[in-house]
Amino acid sequence: MRTSTYEQTRQAWRAIWRETTFARELATLDYPRARELLNLYLPYLDRNAPVLEAGCGPGHVVYYLRQRGYAALGLDYAPEALLPTRAQFPDLPLHLGDVHHLPYPANSFGAYLSFGVMEHFEQGPAGALREAFRVLKPRGILVLSTPTPNVVDALRRLANRLIPARRARPPRAKYYETAYTGAQLAAFCRAAGFRVLRVVPYSHSFTFYGLHRVFRGKGYYQTSGLAELMGKLGRLLAPRWTAFAVLVIAEKPER
Q: Which of 54, 124, 175, 185 could pair with 99 as two cysteines, CB 3.0-4.6 Å apart?
C-alpha cells in the first residue's frame, strides 16, 4: 500500500495544502462547475444520516454541508489541510486518517463522498472502495468523482509524441494521477459490491482551462466566460469527450 509513489503523492499534497487557505477553497464552491456538481449529488443525501467526505482537504465541503443541515464530517491524510481549519473552526469534525483504513465502524454513514481522490492511487481505487462499502449503511450512497479522459488530453498526448521538445518537459505535477472513464469507475464500484445509479460526465468548462490563458478567469482556478461557453457547447455536442471529470453515484444494497 504505502509504496514510494503513494508516499510521494501524500507529501505533494501536504505541500499543496500549505499554499492554500480554507476561505479560498470555500469560495470555489460558488463556481459554476462546483454548483453543477452540488446539484447532481445533493438530492441523494439524507440530512438525518452522517455524511463522510473521505479526502476532504481543508474541509470546505464539510463546512458547506453542515451550514445546510447535513451531519457531515471529513477525513484527510494531510495534517496541513486540516490543522488551519481546526484552528478556525474547532467544532468542525475533521479527522486525520487514510481512506484505505478508515477509523470508523461498519455501517456508520448514510453517504460517502470522494472528490478527486481515487485517481491518485497507483494501485487503483479498489481498496478505498472496499472501505467505503464497509462504512456505509445498507442503502447508503457513494458519491465518487475523478478526472476523465477527454479530447484535450488526447491532443496533448499526441503533441508530446510528435514534438520531441515537449517530451523533455517535466511532469505537470509531483503526484501520481490518472483518469478513469465512467465505465471504468462504474466497474470498480460494482466490483466492490455497489449498485450504480448514475454515471455523469461534468465540469466541461474546466477541460479548457489548461489550454490557454483566454480560458482562465481572474480568480483561483476560475474559468473565463469563453471557457464556460465552450463547456456548454461541449456538453451539448460531445458530453463524454469534453468533460474534465466523471461522477458516479452508487448505492450499497441491502443484504
A: 54
Per-residue pLDDT of the chain (255 residues; tens, 9 = 90+): 445 788 899 999 999 999 999 999 999 999 999 999 999 999 999 999 999 999 999 999 999 999 999 999 999 999 999 999 999 999 999 999 999 999 999 999 999 999 999 999 999 999 999 999 999 999 999 999 999 999 877 666 665 666 666 555 555 557 789 999 999 999 999 999 999 999 999 999 999 998 889 999 999 999 999 999 999 999 999 999 999 999 999 999 997
Where along the chain do its domains lie?
4-204+243-251
Our CA angle for 149, 153, 157, nearest 5°, is 120
Instruction: Mention every residue, 6+ apart, whose C-beta is less than 8 A from residue 160.
Output: 166, 167
